[in-house]
Amino acid sequence: MTRSSNEVNLHQLEEEQLPVAKHNLKGWRHFLGLYAGEHVAASEFVFGATFVALGASMTDILIGLLIGNILAVLSWTFITTPIAVETRLSLYTYLQKIAGDSMTRLYNWANVIIFTVISAAMITVSATAVRFALNIPAQLNWYPTNPWFVLVVLAVGIIVVLVAMYGFNAVSNFSGICAPWLFVMFISGPLVLMPELANAVTGDTRVSDWAEFMHIGSISVWTGLDANGNPGIGLMEVIGFSWAANTITHFGLIDMALLRYAKKRSYGLCTSAGMLFGHYIAWISAGIMGAGTAVLVQKSITELDPGDVAFHALGLSGLVIVIVAGWTTANANLYRAGLAAQAIFSNHSRNKTTFMVGIVTVVIACFPFVFTKLLPLLTYAGLLVVPVGGIVFAEHFVFPRLGLTRYWAHYRKITHSKPAVTAWAAGLVFGFGLNALDVISFYYLFLPTWIFTILLYTALAKRHGAAEKYPQEEADLRTYDEQVETFQAKQAEQLPVQQDDNSLFTNVLTVLARGSLLITVLLAGYTMFFSAGMEQYVTNRTLFFNAGFGCTLAYFASAYWAMKRRQRTSLSSSVE
Description:
This protein has about 575 residues and is mainly α. Helix content is about 75%, strand content about 0%. The protein has 22 helices and no strands. α4 runs antiparallel to α11 and α16 (about 375-400) crosses α18 (about 420-435). The longest helix has about 45 residues, at about 90-135. The model is unreliable at about 1-10 and about 570-575 (pLDDT under 50).
């Protein structure tokens, strides 16, 4: 009787509130596409220009970005992914178990706001490309000054909201299509603009070797001097910036929402698609594209928006890349915002909460200040959530090693965890206090803040009940977990059997998509290596712009068609 009652309750729960079922786990290709799509984004144009404006040297960029992004990958792999895979819960659901209602609700509200604004910023960035194409004036104020710009934002935002509403599969499928093309575009842009930079520095459009490439980059892109002519940031700042840029998702554990779908812990390494092929290459590429565009239009790189840079580097394909890159990042962040909102309004489905958050997101995106203030937002948002990541890390990893009881607050039915709330508040005071005192570089503040919160929360929790044993409650939780597994196994039996589509036509579409990408890269390489003089360079660049845009259309048409055929084949085989 008890079992059937529990099963009824499980039916009444939203799927997002349960551990991810085994039949919903994803392979490594999903995560490669997801992270590449999210982190090869429109914001990379902003970050690429930032390193130029901050006066980093070329050597520091090449070495520092590599080290920092590897550290970020390791943070996802050894901190976020193990917790996500072992629990199969999002951070929001996990936090509910260990911190109670009051802190969880407050934290979820904070995340709704953070990810809503980040998504809005990405939609605004995408809109800059459409603005450029329609010759709408640049929006330089914090508020919109042109009604057509508002309409553009609304149109771009609607697509983001619709994709995010359909959940993880829609986000990963969309990113999976976009990721290879985005990578090719960020590779092609520097190749196309490098002859322009070379001509400006050496008077010759050709780059003969690596030493000359380093010379051109050091003179025209990463000069080691900031916008005011003063010495810029150094190696440690570059490492810290690239490591800290995503603390909100790895040390802050927000990406438990995505990585809970991973079949293995090692899939945390798939984040390298976003960090190494995304941030590392994309930030370097964006810096070169920005510097090359500045030479072309005779403006400072700080005066250019992503639409300007992408169009001059890639032609019409550049406008598409800004739109698509903005979408892929906004999708993932709006998905996270919807999860946080659903945790607050648990009586509503995630689709509904995502839709409501999406409406607010699109409205905020109409105001350009969210784009211009993106860097401070990400930095402070990371410092805001890192203490919560420390609390969860302590509960999951530290407690068992110290003989303390994991989920003790849940066992005691505590709705307001004083240790958790106190540790979070003290962590914020500690972190922002270090910032005010300027003790260490701002980019590294998350490390001492994280450690401080872990130590404080562990000490407080031990005093408030974590040191006690709860054998009956632990047994009840194991029984509940078994019932969830049985419930999900019955659901899996009713699902259609999926089958790969290996038909000739689908394979032809796949070859066409990959061929379009290959042709694009070859055209970009031809522009860089076979432009003997500016006249030949202009001819080659024009060929790349025209043929490259055709390849872009061919890629998306064939890749999307192939994906739909695979989905249709899976459905047909299940019906049979």
